[in-house]
Amino acid sequence: MPSFIQNLLSNRTARGYLTQLIVLLGVAWLGWMMFDNVATNLRQQNIASGLSFLEEEAGFGISQTLVEYSEQSSYGQALWVGLLNTLLCALLGIFFASILGFSIGVARLSPNWLVAKLAATYVDLLRNVPLLLQIFFWYFAVLRSLPGPEASFELADSFFMNTRGIFVPSLVMEGYGGLVAGCMVLGAVFGWLVAHALEKRHAVRPIWLGKTMLAPGVGLVFGLFATLIFVGVPAVDYPHLDGFNFVGGLGIIPEFTALTLALSLYTAAFIAEIVRAGIQSVDRGQVEASQALGLSSRQELKLVVIPQALRVIIPPLTSQYLNLTKNSSLAVAIGYPDLVSVFSGTVLNQTGQAVEVIAITMAVYLILSLSTSFLMNIYNARMQLVTR
Amino acid sequence: MRYRHLSLIIGLILGIMATLIVIPMFEPQDQFPMGATTGTLPSAGVPLPKPTASNYAVATNQKSTLQVVLEKGYVQCGVSQGLPGFSNPDDRGDWRGIDVDVCRAVAAAVLGDARRVKFTALSAKERFTALQSGEIDILSRNTTWTLTRDTSLGLDFIGVTYYDGQGFLVRKESGIKSVYELKGAAVCTNTGTTTELNVADFFRTNNIPYQIVAFEKSDEVIAAYDAGRCDAYTTDASGLYAERLKLTNIDEHIVLPELISKEPLGPVVRQGDDQWADIARWSLNALIGAEELGLTQKNVRSFLKSENPEVRRFLGVESSFGESLGLQNDWALNIVSQVGNYGESFERNLGKETRLGIERGLNAQWNEGGLMYAPPVR
Lengths: 388, 378
What we know:
Chain A is built from twelve helices and eight strands. By secondary structure, chain A is α+β, with helices and mostly antiparallel strands.
């Protein structure tokens, strides 16, 4: 037997696996110790534990809910509401930050002195002020400059803006909202596929047959038809003042506006720098070569510079997206009901089960971040230099 | 191979999730019946044995809180982040307030010196975790006594320092005269408080639409209300009087007459250390009892020669009640001579002479129409 063990230890591969196994066992043991320690301590201090609290009635209200929620809903549903609020803010933030960041990044390289300096000032200003201060600034700056609900700014008697938020008319979908939204997504995918096929076949196409126009266009058309089929011509729900607040229509609370605005503007400053660095990393010879080939400046940017710049841009861009998502947890400071505010704030306090609540919150953020990097990694892999 | 580590990471996440699912299996059942207080209570009729100090001692070999406090020489007291009248640092940085006085009373009783208290300022969210984890010895932070907090949090409320109720602050110009007129109102409040739940209950039962906007810190709540985000600001009535002082123009706001809840505010200790709970409870009782007996910070020493047996027992001249608590017999004397009685503390911190100007109301002695009632020392 000793000779067998000796053989095993002298085998490089086997030794490698053995060390890894030992480390793995060590980590597992450490994890178990931590878990056992917590469980024992909670038990000894008579603190309730377990996840059964998720089914108990929450009993508190939330100011912005994207799904059905009332005070009688459970803590589990409150978690879901908070998560969706976080997602909404993060997704819109990422969208606006990307558009703004790309524009400012390109503007920084503009030959026009004023445009370049304005962009540089923006980046320096926004990047060097703490985000929390910016959130407070937008929240209180926006709030203090708006009138109360009785004296709202209004447009055509149907759009209102006041300290309670922005109120716009909405379409009454009679419960078919989800179905129509599904049709729109389906249409967008269909439009994208058509554009993709056209791209393969025709190198030169009119602009409206590109992916950027065709996908949302077909999506809208699909949505329109779905609405006509399921709902008919939908009624319009106009917001109106009732008691102290507006009812009807679609209301956007100021906390949401302030948070999304602050997150987008702040992250855009970082994205602008990433984009500038990416564009500058493209060799000058590439630009000269494309000019020599007689490409227009639009084609030069789209076909030569940007594809190469994206290789440099995407990895740091991913971490900016992750930062934005995580920074959205600062929402608690201005009372936006995000995951941290609702779940690891109110729910934690009502139930007192800190360990479980914090663990769930951490797991949710971890999953969000890992999914974002997973998607961005796929995109990155597609953009990388293909070597044969 | 690019995503080789991904499987490991996903595995880790699944591991965490699995752990969370496994936790309920370890929920205390037989040997620690008091622990299973959420959802899994045995059916009625099954007697629950009350945990005693000895069964706690079997469960852990930790030192009792009294031992810990005696060794380190001070009481670590959890207070608010600044609520005038209850716990607020003065211009010299010394903590003042009725909640602070409870901690000082405990220090006077245990260590013979009311100054030997260290304060930890806690947000509403942090307060219970700080106590559970042993960071503080007692939590005296305008905290409402509720069943959940008394049971499933592993904590024990030891009495009531201040009988409060939840009220509403509104702008005068809104013309609101009653809570019932707040239809569709946006209401600003703190997260992690009973107020959030009371508001929900109240508006739901009365079928009044409302919108809650909850902030983490009191300063932001009041700032948002001041900026016009909300029609009403709600918290415990005593808190309204205190927070009102932070508004730009105090005269433009009024407190509505109705109180929508019962908010008995009291000190909290960890469950399971019965001796420490008794010490804290009787320190509070001594404050209240001293007022009833007519003992004040100034005159208490002259009562040492009193013939009144009640006073003699209270001040430790007769019998040895201090020892039963694990303290010196002059524990109550120390409390009254160094902190004063409950009435003195109330007038000093909340009463008519202060900026808050709160009436005794429910917080008067039981024989003067209030609810303050200390059990007898005997």
